[in-house]
Design goal:
Blueprint (H helix, E strand, L loop, with lengths): L1 H110 L12 E2 L13 E5 L2 E5 L13 E3 L4 E3 L25 E2 L5
Length: about 200
């Protein structure tokens, strides 16, 4: 009787041990699975974080590039403004030089009327007497096949606006430069304010 009991007890213990082993095995399996899942989740989270960080970094880089581009555009605009100012200054200097040149020419012509070289255009002076239907016969002299006319002793000329004309090429031109549109150099002079004189092309009288 005791042998049977011992055998049964042993079998029961064996079954229990087997069950425990199975339970332990199952528990380990579950633990492993849980660990794996946790690891996967952690990895995913890390990846997401990394992606987010990368995105943020890219955005910052883009913003920096945009800022740099804006700064470059501003610098370009500043350079353009500087160039415009330089051009304006050059134009002003050019105008001043032309005016000075004209002043010198007029002054020289007033002081030394006979020594002034004649222009390549024939230029005549018309005053208020033209309103009365009269033509002003002016003294002129020829040199190298061209003529120059000089208004002398007429005070009305100083009250007329300046307008110069080229007889050779048949056009008039309001200008402060020392060239006509055709390229002919003008050297007009008189005993008054030469800048205010009214010059107009006339046929030879």
């Amino acid at each position: 009787m005791s042998l049977e009991e011992d055998l049964e007890e042993e079998q029961h213990q064996n079954r229990r041990r087997a069950q425990q082993r199975e339970e332990e095995k199952e528990r380990k399996k579950k633990k492993k699975k849980k660990k794996k899942k946790k690891k996967k989740k952690k990895k995913k989270k890390k990846k997401k974080k990394k992606k987010k960080k990368k995105k943020k970094k890219n955005e910052e880089e883009e913003e920096e590039e945009k800022k740099k581009e804006k700064e470059k555009e501003k610098e370009k605009e500043k350079e353009k403004e500087k160039e415009k100012e330089k051009e304006k200054e050059k134009e002003k200097e050019k105008e001043k030089e032309e005016e000075d040149e004209e002043d010198q020419e007029d002054e020289f012509a007033i002081r030394f009327p006979t020594r002034v070289p004649p222009p390549r255009c024939l230029v005549s002076v018309v005053g208020k007497v033209a309103d009365l239907g009269l033509r002003l016969r002016l003294r002129w002299r020829s040199r190298f096949g061209v003529a120059i006319t000089v208004a002398e002793g007429f005070g009305f000329a100083s009250r007329m606006p300046r307008k110069a004309g080229c007889l050779t090429h048949r056009h008039a031109w309001q200008t402060s430069s020392s060239l006509f549109p055709c390229g002919c150099k003008k050297r007009l002079y008189s005993h008054g304010r030469a800048r205010q004189f009214f010059y107009s092309p006339l046929p030879m009288l």
